[in-house]
Structure formats: C-alpha cells, structure tokens
Amino acid sequence: MTVKTLIQKPKPNLLRQFANFTRTTAGLEKTCRLIQSLAQLAIELDITPGSTTTAQWQTARSQIALTRRFFRFFAFIDCFSQVYGLLGGAQGQGLFMTLIEIGRWSCLGLYLVLEDLTILHALGVHPVAWNTPVLVEAFKFWFYSLALSVIGAVWGLLSTSSSSASSKTGSDEKKNKKKNAEKTVSNTDDSQTKAQRTALMKRIVVDGCDLLIPGVFVGWMQVSDLMIGVTMVISTVVSGGDAWVKAQG
C-alpha cells in the first residue's frame, strides 16, 4: 500500500502577502485609495490649518487621486460589456434585477467616460472651461450607479431570505425521504446562500459609504470632509479584503 504524504504549502508571511497584493492592479489601486483617504483624514484632523504639513497632505491627496484615475481610464469598456451581456439575457436574472443592473452599469460607464474627457485638464495639458460642468454630470451618474447598486443588493438580500425560507419549508416536508442525501445538498445550498448574502452585505457597505462622495460633490448631501475620509477608509478596507484574498490565490 502506498502512503501519500500531503505537503501543505507554507503560508507566506504578511510582507510577502502585501507584495502579492500590490502586484495586482486592484490591489495597487486599493492601496492608493487607502493612502488618499488617510491623507484626507490627516488634513481634517490637522490642528494647525494652513501649515506646511497641511499643504503637503493636500498635494499628496490630489496627486494620488489623479494617479487612481489612470487605473480606471478604460474601465468603461467593462461596464458597457456588462450591459451588453445583460441585454442579451445571459444572466438568468429576474426582470427587475436585470433592469437595476443595466441601469447600474450604464450609469457607471457614463461616469467613467465623462471623467475621462477631463483627464487632460486635470494633468494641466489642455485646460478647458467646461471641466467643472462635465465633472458634475459625471458624478451625478456615479451617484445613480451607487444608489442602484445598493437597491439591487438590498433586493438580493430580500430574495435570498425568501428563497431560504421556501427551501427550508420544502426540506421539512420531505425530511423522511433520502435524509442523508438531502442533508448534504442542504448544507451546500446553505453555504452558497451565506456566501451570497455576505457579498451583498459588503456591497451595501462599500457602495453606501462611497455614495457620500458624489452626493457631496454635486451638492445633494451635506456631510463633512472628515466623515467622507472615514467612510472612504471603511469602504476601501472592506472591498480590499476580497482583492487581498484573491491576490494570494
């Protein structure tokens, strides 16, 4: 009899995991976003307004924000690809969720396109008078996209709750038939439902926090810059967790 010894691959240390994380586009973008949000907090918490340190943090924030724009310059292609797939009916979702997703990705794609139109102005290469109006319209579309994303995630949570209740009722009615097989299937379904609900709750937290940024920019919300910095940190850490795990795979 041959005995196979399973050699478990040693888990890399934290420094190596961070290196793996920052080697991915998503990981590097999340790192820059976290630094930007921390710079925002440093500016708001500075007890000596107008000091050289405050000016340095403001410069760092603006430069990092500009850098992050290059990461998403062509992201509108993915957004419109999502819309094309949804229009093709390949997702197998209900009509309401399909419309929500089409609106969500369409608005996000329009936001990215309009933002891209102002990149030369942001770089100081070709200043234009219409920069601010275009950015305002872009941020409106971003707001719509995030709002639709939150609505869709809440609807998804309600749907999974209803599905779980129905599944549990059906399982109780057949509990005397193929008990062991049903238990295995039930455990698998429960784990999938739990993972789906976790992802939806993360989406609500992330997009709910980010909703403040365009809301304040267009004047639809009255929130302090300190609060925006805090919510940016929260959304970056929550969304960065999945990117961190994926980078280690």
Can you walk through the features of this model?
The protein has 249 residues and is mostly helical. Among the domains are: 23-45 and 52-72 and 219-248, no CATH class; 75-162. The chain has helices at 14-22, 25-45, 52-71, 75-87, 95-116, 119-123, 131-173, 179-210, 212-217, 225-248. The longest helix is centred in the middle third of the chain and has 43 residues, at 131-173. It is globular, with a radius of gyration of 23 Å. The relative contact order is 0.12.
Give structural attributes.
249 residues; mainly alpha; 78% helix; 0% strand; disordered N terminus; membrane; transmembrane helix; AoPex11B
State the helicity in percent bands.
over 70%
Low-confidence stretches: 1-5
Query: How many individual β-strands?
Result: 0
Described by the principal axes of the CA atoms, the overall outline is globular
Order of helices and strands: HHHHHHHHHH
Radius of gyration (CA) equals 23 Å
What class do helices, strands and sheet pairing give? mainly alpha
Please report the number of helical segments.
10
Main beta-sheet strand count, sense and barrel state? none
Strand content: under 5%
Global mean pLDDT: 87
For the terminal residues, how far apart are their CA atoms?
33 Å
How does the SSE layout of this entry go?
Elements: H1 14-22, H2 25-45, H3 52-71, H4 75-87, H5 95-116, H6 119-123, H7 131-173, H8 179-210, H9 212-217, H10 225-248
Helix pairs in contact: 1-10, 2-3, 2-10, 4-5, 5-7, 7-8, 8-10
InterPro entries: PEX11
Main location: membrane
Organism: Aspergillus oryzae
